[in-house]
RNA sequence: CGGAGCGUAGCUCAGCCUGGUAGAGCACUUGGUUUGGGACCAAGACGUCGCAGGUUCGAUUCCUGUCGCUCCGACCA
């Protein structure tokens, strides 16, 4: 490609609506342009890198035995009602109506469609296993699009769906995808690592996310360097000990704590109750019913765990207006010892199991109870792991301290089980003649997000540093003179033709610009290899080969193509 | 949806506080001089100051509303 022929609108300064490095560089290097918040046009260069990421994904999916299909973005509402997600995923669905007032959803994912397809086309165990994938535009009504392609309303996702006869076979399919994902991200030059994950609205009971470490990521990951344990903070557990038991104290005793509404205040003079001897009482509304959550004073509730453990569709903290009539006191004096309505469930964090001599609110403004033995004095409906792991806690597997870091989620694999196949009748006849629901898995990669993650991980003050595998062009030829009869340009054209003949993606910067402009732009866009052709080196019979991330080397003109080929193959 | 901030030329921003009809740098066009790390000179083109209403003789400027964008939070497959 000749530079003047395509459109590469580089910017000297970043538009002020970009915050993070990768977003700024996507705009500055002329890869994308914003049409509206969370909605972007891919310019020629951006599209080329996107296609390269897609191609890597295709190759690895095909290698893992998946077959490509393409499902509609426009999906009838009915199948979403059948799966139950018309309600549970309602807040992210883009809904449209056609001329006859029929309602459609723009595909945020395609479990319903693929399962409907399988229901019609797969009838026998002989047709299984199958794994279908597609790479297509997805729509999600994100409440808050962010950071360019990182969280967009419209984006490109690879989604795959496996169908198997048994749970065991489904696990094998899961493992194949897990391995394929590992290869895909490695080929994109990304340092991605798998972590245990919550399954969220997709459902299922087993899942991993593939994470790229980055401070700008939207996820916290807890991990252990010693044994390799890694989990999304929403799911992570640790080996932290339960609350230490004390001598069983006397009966519960109420004491006055005027104006004390915070754990911290109660831990100070004159009360001096350490946070780890307090029970924090929270009221949530789970699917419109109030529930009480008990967490140790020095712990934080993990809402994702709460949803997962209680099976609720939606939870939110109760408002003061809801709490006072329920428990008779305002937040700050709440507890589960007295005045708890019988029909309100009390869920307690496992760390409190067996705890005694604790202090908690008395459900009377300005009073607390002390000497509370949780199992003696509180009617706990169920014990769950509900707390959020913090850095430094002992790893649940090996006991070494856990660390926490930010990361970008680029892929997610789920073992779904039969949730969708049962609801949408994707059944098959097994060897023994019995009809069974197919055991499913689903597997997503945020293609556009992966693209941005590559930039987030590979950049410096001058611009993007592309890995060869996904660079829009692998080689940029930069003649400092573009006059057709100049030696630099003639040689540039020669290299250009030779490299193209060898299937190298090459761009010739034929702009009549000053050298500084061309060098800066080639570094901003981040082509992995630049061939510089200028009078000074040509006079010595040399050209300059500059890897984007390495030192310039002077090379004999006649060796240049061979040297570039060696770098490209490396 | 709650909190904060911002909307002025393609981009980055000044002007607004203290009202008098709009500016700079970069980019763009033409000509010239330059030519190995984002050149220089000259001339030029580019604006419904987000939109609507109000106050005023007069509003980019003050007030109200509204839309859009960004960040934090909530949410998130």
Task: Briefly summarize what is shown.
With 570 residues, the chain is of the alpha+beta class. The protein is 26% helix and 28% strand.
Structural class: alpha+beta
The tally of structural domains comes to: 3
Please state the overall shape, judged from the principal axes of the Cα atoms: globular
- Rounded to the nearest angstrom, the distance between the terminal CA atoms is 23 Å
Strand content: 25-35%
The CATH class of the largest domain is identified as Alpha Beta
Looking at the structure, the CATH topology of the largest domain is BirA Bifunctional Protein, domain 2
Q: Overall mean pLDDT score?
A: 94
The CATH architecture of the largest domain can be named as 2-Layer Sandwich
CATH-wise, what's the superfamily of the largest domain? Bira Bifunctional Protein, Domain 2
Reported for the largest beta sheet, the result is: 9 strands, mixed
Helicity level: 25-40%
From the alpha-carbon coordinates, what is the Rg to the nearest angstrom? 30 Å
Outline the low-pLDDT stretches: none
Tell me the total number of β-strands: 31
In DSSP terms (H or I, runs of 4 or more residues), the helix count works out at 16
